[in-house]
Amino acid sequence: MNAPLRRVGVVVMVLFGLLFVNLNYVQAYKADEYRNSDYNGRVQVAEYERKRGLVEAGGTTVATNRETSGRLKFLRTYPKGEMYAHVVGYKPVNGAETGIERLEDEYLAGTSDQLFADRVKDLFTGDQTAGGNVLLSISPRAQETAFKQLADNQVGASKGAAVAIDPATGAIQALVSMPSFDPNPLADHDPDTAQAAYQRLEGDKNGPLKNRALSEVLPPGSTFKVIGAAAALENGYTKETRIPAGSSYLPPTAGDDIRNAASSICPESSVTLIEALTESCNTGFARLGVTLGSAKLKDEARQFGFEDQELTAGRLGDGGLPVAPSRTGEMLTPDGRDDPPSVAQSAIGQNNVRMTPLEGAMIAGAIANDGRQMRPYLVQKQLGPDRTTTHYTAAPRELRRPVDSQVAGDLQDMMVSVVQNGTGRNARIDGYRVGGKTGTAQAGEVTDDHGWFIGFALDDNGKPVSAVCVMLESAGSGGSAEAARISREIMRAVIADRGGR
To answer: Which residues are designated catalytic?
Structure first.
């Protein structure tokens, strides 16, 4: 064989070798990626041949299907629209699912290993058994109340969030972010319609796609005083211990003094710890924070869940919707010593302190539950396609114990005093022991203050019924009082859903 032919033969053999390697690469390593690609039309058709499982909350269907005459047999629909959008999320034809639709995708789609027996049965019957059904922990009445009360708030706030949890189990009873969005257009089978809907929402300056209940961290204002009170009780103070107060306080090295919201609030030189929380005494808690020091404040906040970067809300122990970590921020000078102005401001929930609404509800829940903080969850059960088989039931798990039962009991008394005699009166519920703490957080010179409330309700046996946090962003004057009123309505809805009065 002459040299030119030999060279051609070698080139051909190399090309065949490369083709062989590529085919094996595609089959062995890229097959799943191509098979599951959102742009694989055959996969889409096959996926929509099987009816997707339902998502339900307390007997209310919040995600279902409608049969179509198009190429894709079933259209995913959301009967409650905006009300459950940030919990359930949506499933687009092209693109990634969100919310529970993402967390429980395989189970809802029927491709989970838990549903293997159903798929084997289909091989013999020729059926396309529907996916599994997911039951949420959400209380429909509480969710509806939270949604409507936030939307119709009396201070004109356009952004905010509300979370309610069962303190004894961690079950999330309500989770609403405002503004919300209608997930139905995002699941439309027409990709242009779905894309246009997404672009409108993505471009909205109010951020309706953002889950403020879990991902928004804002200064919590005076709700953080509960952390300072807990730190004091764990370091030798009692409810009746007198702490320095006064109409103003200038921390060492500070340029500006700290004042109370009104001249009538703790003008005396000292008040008891319970009086300081009831009146929301800025000067008292600022002084207390400097006395305790940043390390004790930060440690107490950490015990209640601040700085937790791994917290999720979904199915217990199996991932979930990510929760942004709440932070206490820096309170030290460059040489590592306490910076008194920073500590003082942090002690009243300002400076660099940031908190999510879920964390606020978890703080209140731990206090209501005698010092035990439970892991929050949204998925209560997984039911098979025929609804006779249960593949998963949530088993409540303790997350941490921030304080012992004695300290928790003292904090309950102090927070009940806030609702009975102080700034949280709007949260009162007849026949229930309600405790809480309001918070008004400064957000800058050109932004109105945020309004907060964290609280809980105990029944006449002292058992916790619900713990809530309501945040009204840039609510201005009256925001915290309105947050307390909305919290009352949410807790009343939970009570009504449980058959209470």
So the answer is: 222
Q: Which long-range contacts (CB under 8 A, 24 or more apart) does 290-294 make?
A: 290/251, 290/252, 290/338, 290/340, 290/343, 290/344, 290/347, 292/228, 292/231, 292/232, 292/235, 293/338, 293/343, 294/331, 294/332, 294/338, 294/339, 294/342, 294/343, 294/346
The domain segmentation of the chain, as residue ranges, is: 215-377+399-497
Residue pLDDT, tens place only, 392-435: 999 999 999 999 999 999 999 999 999 999 999 999 999 999 99
Q: Taking a C-beta distance cutoff of 8 angstroms, is the pair 328, 352 a contact?
A: yes
> Which CA distances in Å does 186 have to 94, 222, 284, 433, 482?
10, 39, 51, 43, 33
Q: 245: closest CA among 259, 224, 231, 225?
A: 259
Q: What is the pLDDT of residues 233-273, one digit of tens each?
A: 999 999 999 999 999 999 998 889 999 999 999 999 999 99
Q: What angle do CA 423, 427, 428 make, to 5 degrees?
A: 105
Q: Is the pLDDT of residue 1 over 60?
A: no
Helix (H, G, I), strand (E, B) or coil at 142: helix
φ, ψ for residue 48, nearest 5 deg:
-85, 5
Contacts (Cβ under 8 Å, ≥6 apart) of 195: none
Mean pLDDT of the chain: 92
| Mean local confidence (pLDDT), 276-293 | 98
Categorise residue 59: left if φ over 0, alpha if ψ from -120 to 50, beta otherwise: left
Please tell me the distance from the alpha carbon of residue 390 to that of residue 378, in angstroms, as a whole number.
Answer: 16
3-state secondary structure of 28: helix
Report the interhelical angle of 357-368 vs 405-421 (nearest 10°): 110
Please say whether the structural domain 215-377+399-497 has been given the CATH code 3.40.710.10.
Answer: yes
Terminal C-alpha separation, the chain:
99
Pairing of strands 172-178, 159-165: antiparallel
pLDDT at residue number 32? 54
Question: Residue 63 CB: number of other CB atoms within 10 A?
Answer: 31
376: tokens are 């929050």
Cα 357 from Cα 469, distance rounded (Å)? 6
For residues 418 and 414, give the distance between their C-alpha atoms in angstroms, rounded to a whole number.
7
Cα atoms in the Cβ-side hemisphere of radius 13 Å centred on 107: 21
**pLDDT at res. 24:** 63
